[in-house]
Protein 1
Amino acid sequence: MKYIIANWKMNLSLTDALELVSETLGFLKKQHPKISFSKYFMIAPPYPFLYPLHQLIKKNGSLLSLASQDVSSHEKGAFTGEISAQQLQEMGVQAILIGHSERRLYHHETEDLLLQKIQKSLAVGLLPIICLGESLDIRKSHQTIPFIIHQLNTLCSPLNSHAFNPGTPPFLIAYEPLWAIGTGITPSPKEIEEVHNALHQRLKSLFPTHLVPVIYGGSVTSINARDILSLPSVDGSLIGGASLSITPFLDILRNALS
Ligand code: PGA
């Protein structure tokens, strides 16, 4: 099975959100066997929807899990507007998107800050989903692999693998080329494989006793999901636009199940 993480960004009303999750849960209930969907299928809604969605998911057999779109780099205190990893965990969150390119770009998030967010999430047992990706300029100047590996090294080599739980992924890596997000353009399968293979290789040398899944994001749709998810180096997908309505989203989940 492959990971599918729906990043709703700042979209949908609460009514739409409840309906979309109810329909997704209805679809998952019909699947046999019901093996650990919640480990692989996650929804990252806007913050205020987390708790109502958590209640809905819990009432229906916990077949999905919730991710947050961000987290504070602080543990607690006078940080108006921020939400801590601990508070998110209390709202039923299990994973946190960290370093999405929209946060890096619009909120000027630095790698130092992102590292603190990763550490705060790990400290309370939440799964960081660490987003990496190159700009079109970097891609065109053939610097993609060194750039991505540098991003990985900066955020992951300081992590202490002794604190990781054995047998479960300590975090996920999401490779999302900036030029593919929301544009309808995706890298070729060969280009995706090149980056994913380089990431897998580096992760293996950093964390030889842990398996770190690498998922792809950027213009994944119900049309291209099958091809992308069938690539051996792709452990799943981070989905933006195509996760906002039920028909394409269920099509993508079907591909991830098969
Ligand atoms: P997209 O977004 O699927 O709409 O391209 C992906 C993302 O930003 O995670």
Protein 2
Amino acid sequence: MRTPLFVANWKMNQTATEADGFFRTFPGSLRDVVPARAHVALAPQAIQLAQAAAALKGTSVGVAAQNCGQTAWGAYTGENSPVALHALGVQWVILGHSERRWVYHEDSHLIQARMKAALEAGLAPILCVGERLVDRKEGKTFTVLEEQLAILKGVVEGALDRFVLAYEPVWAIGTGETASPQQAQEAHAFIRQWMHDRFAAAASESIRILYGGSAKPDNAAALMAQKDVDGLLVGGASLNPMAFAELVRNGVRSQA
Ligand code: PGA
């Protein structure tokens, strides 16, 4: 049984004051659900990670970073050390998000280095993969997923229990156009089979594969009802504590 995981990806949003209000009210609103029936993490901007770690300490809600540096330390202006993130109390780190791949041109080589550094620092990576609309139209969805997953080979062998994958079709992110539950399930099943063929069968069964791309309170249940959808990575709908709590609740309910 895979415990569902819901991650709020705030991207470049929320002031410190807005974040503070969220941190104070949100954990209490899900006390009956988290951590018994689901895991939840918030990924604020890097400038609010210390604030998040302090405010959420002792609650069941975890803290995730939106990215991390590709080595433990060094001359990398603008980056955040995975060791420093871990020391702060950050547990998870989103890596390879499509906005990092397409807006900031992060390639597989760099994402793999970030992943290695994250694992060495004790963080749990959430690796995002997903095709663009043009790839889907050309029938290349699975080829793209395979290419993006290839960076796992030889890197995560001993750490799969800490690892999370997220299927995020680029055409569904921030567009309001959610993948249908069937489209999500098809991609998730492909990813799990890919993991099964390359790693121990048990690891492929236990790894959590999240869906991301216009997940909302009203489509969370249908997505989570899919056999291989183990959680949601949520952008826009995670900025409001009440909407995100409702989304988690609806998603968990469909697991019963
Ligand atoms: P969205 O973003 O929910 O706003 O589509 C999801 C993501 O980019 O992780």
